[in-house]
């Protein structure tokens, strides 16, 4: 998907180092012309779609995420891997 980055979420930085992800993906929007872009977001926050609950393939909703959270608690992954890990997120984005 154009203008979207997928990031695998981890419960904490220790689990991130160990590679134990939470089974959820956050999609952040990099294109200001996207229908998902929020003009209230500044350089420290990004528009995103993320998991509502803390379990694998959780339902999703629109949100914002701090860049600090993205840097410390997520790891960028490919769209193909995001489709495997969090199909509900992809289905939401394709609507």
SSE layout:
Layout: E1 4-10, H1 13-18, E2 21-29, E3 45-51, E4 60-66, H2 67-73, E5 74-77, H3 79-85, H4 87-94
Antiparallel strand pairs: 1-2, 1-5, 2-3, 3-4
Helix pairs in contact: 3-4
Task: Please describe what this structure looks like.
With 95 residues, this protein is of the alpha+beta class. It has one domain. It contains four helices and five strands, in the order βαβββαβαα. It has helices at 13-18, 67-73, 79-85, 87-94, and strands spanning 4-10, 21-29, 45-51, 60-66, 74-77. Helix 3 crosses helix 4. It is globular and about 35 Å long. The two termini are 13 Å apart.
**H/E topology pattern:** EHEEEHEHH
Largest sheet: 5 strands, antiparallel
Shape by Cα distribution = globular
Biggest sheet strand line-up: 4-3-2-1-5
What is the overall pLDDT average? 87
**Strand percentage:** 35-45%
Low-confidence stretches: none
- Radius of gyration using CA atoms only: 12 Å
* Helical percentage: 25-40%
- State the end-to-end CA separation: 13 Å
How many helices? The count is 4
| Count of DSSP strands | 5
Helix/strand class: alpha+beta
Total number of distinct structural domains: 1
Structure, briefly:
By secondary structure, the chain is α+β, with helices and mostly antiparallel strands. It has 4 helices and 5 strands.
